Amino acid sequence: MKISILVPTRERMNHRLTLIFSILSTVDDINNVDIYFGVDKDDPTLNTIKKIAAGITCLKVVEIENNGEFLGLGKLWNKLADESDAEIISMINDDYVFKTQGWDTMLLEEFANMPEDKIQAIHCNDEKHGKDLPVNLFCHRRYAEVLGQFMRPEFTINWVDQWLHQMFLAFDRIKYRDDYTIEHRHWVYGKRGRDSTAERMAVADTAVVNNQPVSHSDNLWHQMVDERIEDVKKLSAYLKQEPNWSVVDTGNKIVNYENSPVTT
User: Fold this and answer.
1) What pairing do the DSSP bridges indicate for beta strands 174-184 and 121-125?
2) Could you tell me if residue 222 is inside a domain?
3) Is residue 130 part of a domain?
4) What is the maximum span of the chain, computed from C-alpha positions, in angstroms?
5) Which DSSP string do the residues of 40-89 spell out, in sequence order?
């Protein structure tokens, strides 16, 4: 097995270099890992990161045809998952720092003991959310194969982690490793300043409702109840296991599971 570190990224050369070297300096075996940077074709730092990748064999730059727009994290992670061929895929941002020596060995040991159906996710301490939210996440790509995609592409910046969390949590298939740290140096936590890339993402996620600016992704979370229920049912049919609906935001809809595709 191999791990693909999937990272949508724009500009932020300092963050990229910190992330790369934190990975290189903490893995037990670099052959366990590939790093995929998804970089917009109009990113002014594209040529620079390509030159760096030429000297780091595990780093691959995927050029994103974006037509001058921010496509959204959901779409970008899906594109990177499609580009990679490793069994283990991940949700990683460019402002992360891997801190624990041997995290690659730990992850591979965890996935070596996963269920035969391969629906399993692991997330690590990000020094902020603990077990409550997997802002970093690793899973077998079978999850994406069952649902037809890794991430919900509708979301621009937020809620992709909550969606994944509820999918795996509904079947008790997510494990938290507090003893392994991948620090999230997000500007919201006061760990750095808000840069032009963060501003660009926020603008792309802003919609106008009743003449008021609102988060497009926030609205979508509440609008996509039926899609969330359908994704859980797809996993349920594959696993032949009834979900724990109490951990899924079904928008107070009554879920009639008598017509479930699950067979016994």
Assistant:
1) parallel
2) no
3) yes
4) 57
5) ETT-TTHHHHHHHHHT-TTEEEEEE--TTS---HHHHHHHHHHH---SEE
91 domain residue, yes or no: yes
Contact 222, 251 (CB under 8 A): yes
Which domain range does residue 78 map to? 3-187
> How many distinct structural domains can be found in the chain?
1
Give residue-wise pLDDT tens across range 8-24.
999 999 999 999 999 99
Is residue 164, in this structure, part of any structural domain at all?
Answer: yes
CATH of the domain at 96: 3.90.550.10
Please tell me the pTM assigned to this model: 0.92
Cα separation of the two ends of the chain: 31
Residues 6+ apart with CB under 8 A from 40: 10, 46, 63, 64, 66
Residue 99 near residue 25 (C-beta atoms within 8 A):
no
Q: What single-letter DSSP state applies at residue 153?
A: T
